[in-house]
Design a protein that fits this description.
Length: 305
């Protein structure tokens, strides 16, 4: 496994809750006060909430939490539980009659894993919020990664289990970190070693992407909403929302290094970006290291199982 975790950026808290029997869960990220945020949504089948607020043309540049959830669009309800927890703790934008927390969320499809009628709800979101801690460094089949699977190029019956992966890289005083819930249509490799970590197997032989696509009998129409890799990248560097949207876009290159094919019409890949604004950092340095740390996190989603 590669070293590090999302909360190696000081002040980041992470909380997970899952239902292992039904194969679904939710992950909550709480950034420290004053953090700026951005997002980049790709693929053909995203499920998101409040992401438009993080586009450069809108006024909001800070968030109070981020939510990664299973359950497809049903899982977006988990963000309401996080909002209620933040509200009860007095965290959010003051609107005169109370506070309104800003909680962007994104979901992945895990309904085919164990239970088609189970997903993270408001109560599970609230529980993940209350469990959030800067010391939770767990990875594997938990939280939003509880029902995550990959390598579905020959259909779900050939899929491999994946989960939550995280990693970090320190460059002098600057820290770059990532957390991903990997639920991809494509095969997974370790971008630095070239090793294939998850791919369909037939009679004990691992198939290449080309072989799997040609041999498979995937119903692409039915499967078009059944994948998505969700990620969060963070740094203690100083960046504006506009810069963070660009960095979230660049961070998707880490997916491209480790998932093949990626950003397909069957995926709704999304990356959120966070900056705690503690130290100076160039865009060029961040543009180099964010894809690298994302690729490591993707690999750890398999190594950690």
């Amino acid at each position: 496994m590669y070293s590090g975790h999302l909360n190696d950026v000081r002040g980041m808290a992470v909380g997970h809750r899952e239902d292992g029997l039904k194969g679904t869960g939710v992950t909550v990220i709480l950034p420290p006060e004053g953090s700026t945020a951005g997002v980049d949504v790709r693929g053909g089948a995203p499920g998101t909430r409040e992401c438009i607020l993080l586009q450069p043309t809108y006024a909001v540049d800070q968030v109070h939490a981020l939510v990664l959830s299973g359950g497809s669009a049903f899982g977006l309800d988990s963000a309401t539980g996080v909002m209620e927890g933040l509200r009860d703790d007095g965290v959010g934008f003051d609107v005169g009659v109370g506070v309104v927390p800003i909680v962007p969320a994104a979901v992945l499809f895990d309904l085919a894993y164990k239970a088609k009628d189970a997903w993270p709800d408001k109560a599970m979101g609230r529980a993940a919020y209350e469990a959030a801690s800067p010391s939770d460094r767990r990875q594997g089949s938990l939280g939003a990664g509880c029902g995550a699977t990959v390598a579905k190029t020959m259909g779900f019956s050939y899929a491999k289990k994946s989960g939550i992966g995280s990693a970090s890289i320190a460059v002098g005083d600057v820290v770059f970190s990532a957390m991903v819930a990997v639920n991809a249509f494509g095969h997974i490799c370790d971008a630095e070693t070239g090793d294939v970590l998850a791919a369909p197997e037939v009679k004990g032989r691992t198939l290449s992407v080309e072989e799997a696509l040609l041999k498979g009998a995937v119903d692409f129409e039915k499967g078009k909403h059944q994948n998505t890799t969700l990620g969060v990248v963070a740094t203690n560097g100083r960046f504006t929302k506009t810069e963070l949207c660009k960095l979230a876009s660049t961070a998707h290159n880490g997916y491209a290094k480790s998932i093949t094919p990626v950003h397909t019409g069957l995926d709704g890949d999304t990356i959120f970006s966070l900056a705690t604004n503690e130290v100076d950092c160039s865009m060029q340095l961040a543009e180099y290291y964010f894809p690298k740390v994302v690729a490591r996190a993707v690999a750890n989603s398999i190594y950690s199982l």
